[in-house]
Amino acid sequence: MSDFHSLTISEIKKETANAVSIAFTIPDNLKSSFEFKAGQYVTIKHMIDNKEVRRAYSICSSPNSGLLIVAVKKVEHGNFSIFANTQLKAGDTLDVMAPQGHFVLTEASEKNYVAFAAGSGITPVLSIVKTALETNSHSKFLLIYGNQSIAETMFYDELMVLKKSYPERFLVEFIFSRRKEENSLFGRVEKSTVNFFLKNKYSETAFDEFYLCGPEPMIDMVSSVLKENGVNEKQIHFELFTTAEEGLLVENHDGKTEITITVDDDTETFIMEQTTSILEAALDHGIDAPYSCQGGICSTCIAKIVEGKAEMRKNQILTDGEIAEGLILTCQAHPTTSKLVVDYDDV
């Protein structure tokens, strides 16, 4: 479950001045392990300056392509993103975990889709767009994509090729905040923008599914406007790359808990402080629990509570139904009972 596989990079492509795409060679014996759904991500592990770094990156290729490609945008103080953009080259190897994630294309049927993306949020959305168009010849997709300028727009050329390949079924609306460009809007993805496209320009189209990926304020705003326009919450799918929310614990966590953790069929029991997260306790105890972001915005560290209770500092991924089933984000979860049994395998 938490196994990493050493994959060779087949190609590094400069997408913008500050972003690259990384294509991996998948050996025949690992092809089944790296099958993925459109919208999923992989966790990459690498040693940089003698420190282990783990990062989750969305897959931008479609499952139908037979390729595994991720995109990495350079961010300030981002150890791996800077390394990927300045030092990685074809022929290098990286440790990669099998694909994961719940931000995926729904059943491939005849539907009308909309995606709101900003910046590197296009990465999983691109995979979803390609797959929706490839899989059903009657599906339509509207992409509303915000950036600073064309030069900073990841996959601009690829999107224009898609638009040419599917002129009746793929519609893309570019929004640029720093430069006025032909056939685009100037500004940002705002409430007025959402209303303009849904209530005016595309008012005659009934959209079935909505995909949002970008900064947290944009996702919150677009979700709110969609609901105001009568869109059911179940039709709205989103993925965060970063979050400003720190998260708070409501219950008192000053005791100790006897915790039993199962990972990859190995089970260990030990005593942990309730002030520590379940993931931190597992790692401190030498258990190879799966994790990536440690910030509660990916789903790598999900486990199931078999016995006992725990409280999460924050949760922006799991649904109420999943929580009712006992699922938790272990990087955010703290025990609230004297005994707790957690299973990473039963997810």
TrEMBL record:
InterPro entries: 2Fe-2S_ferredoxin-like_sf (IPR036010), 2Fe-2S_ferredoxin-type (IPR001041), 2Fe2S_fd_BS (IPR006058), Beta-grasp_dom_sf (IPR012675), Cbr1-like_FAD-bd_dom (IPR008333), FAD-bd_FR_type (IPR017927), Flavoprot_Pyr_Nucl_cyt_Rdtase (IPR001709), FNR_nucleotide-bd (IPR039261)
Protein origin, superkingdom: Bacteria
CDD domains cross-referenced by the UniProt entry: fer2 (cd00207), PA_degradation_oxidoreductase_like (cd06214)
Residues annotated as domain FAD-binding FR-type: 2-106
Residues spanning the membrane: none
Cofactors named for this entry: FAD
Domain 2Fe-2S ferredoxin-type: 257-347
Keyword annotations from UniProtKB, A to Z: 2Fe-2S, FAD, Flavoprotein, Iron, Iron-sulfur, Metal-binding, Oxidoreductase
Protein name: 2Fe-2S iron-sulfur cluster-binding protein
Organismal lineage: Bacteria, Pseudomonadati, Bacteroidota, Flavobacteriia, Flavobacteriales
